[in-house]
Amino acid sequence: MDKILEELPKKASEKHAENKKFFVKLKKKPPKNLDYVMQELHENEFERTDCLKCGNCCKTTGPLFTRADIERISKYLRLKPQLFIEKFLRIDEDRDYVLQELPCPFLDNENYCGIYDVRPKACREFPHTDRKKFHQINNITLKNVAICPAAFNIVEEMKKRVAGK
Ligand code: SF4
Ligand code: SF4
Fold first, then answer.
1. Band (136; pLDDT cuts 50, 70, 90)
2. Which amino acid residue places its CA nearest to atom 1 of ligand 1?
3. To test ligand 1's pocket by mutation, which of 56, 58, 110, 121 has the most ligand atoms within 8 angstroms of CB?
4. Model confidence over 38-76: pLDDT tens digits?
């Protein structure tokens, strides 16, 4: 996995123009069965990919935290929400709460999440490859393929399945 992660940004950068073109075309005319295809591609990929051998999203990106995330996680940690914010979060340029530091402080050495059951919604949904109307998040996906080897593989498969329709 280390080698895959090391090579991923270069591979993603080489595919960037092709992926961008693909998503522009897809957005104009998304196939009717896109949600179904994405669900299948996502499930197939995550049967092969073990996130515990990777953890790259938690190490390099981190989620944004909604108010509901902050309330839920603080309660779990028995911290006042304001104290949780002061300890772990900052506000980014989009006015969202994000982690002060990466890797995520809740990630342990074996890539387990210390707050897994109450983790942010963005963590639960990453890399968003099984969400409905996948073509609407093309800009996020173009970035995620450089971070997440599973997202990279899913987009490669997707181009084979959906291209030319
Ligand atoms: S909260 Fe958990 S899943 Fe989310 S980035 Fe941190 S370690 Fe990863
Ligand atoms: S979601 Fe992607 S980046 Fe995150 S641990 Fe799994 S394979 Fe790695």
1. confident
2. 119
3. 58
4. 999 999 999 999 999 999 999 999 899 999 999 999 999
Do 84 and 107 fall within a single domain?
Answer: yes
- CB neighbours (10 Å) of residue 2? 8
- Closest to 97 (Cα-Cα) out of 87, 107, 106: 87
- Asked whether 146 and 9 are in contact (CB, 8 A), the reply is yes
pTM over 0.90: yes
The answer, yes or no, to whether any atom of ligand 1 lies below 6 A from the CB of 106, is yes
pLDDT confidence of residue 135: 82
Query: Tens of pLDDT along 97-116?
Result: 999 999 999 999 999 999 99
Q: What is the mean pLDDT of the chain?
A: 94
Domains contained in the chain, number: 2
Best substitution site from 49, 53, 106 to test ligand 2's pocket, by max atoms within 8 Å of Cβ?
A: 49
C-alpha to C-alpha distance for 84 and 11, rounded to whole angstroms: 37
Q: Are residues 151 and 134 in the same domain?
A: yes
Q: Are residues 73 and 109 in the same domain?
A: yes
Which listed ligand is nearest to 113 at the C-alpha?
Answer: 1
Same domain, 103 and 115: yes
84: its two tokens: 């949780």
Cβ atoms of 148 and 142 closer than 8 Å: no
Q: Which domain holds residue 99?
A: 64-123
Q: Which residue, by CA, sits nearest to atom 8 of ligand 1?
A: 58
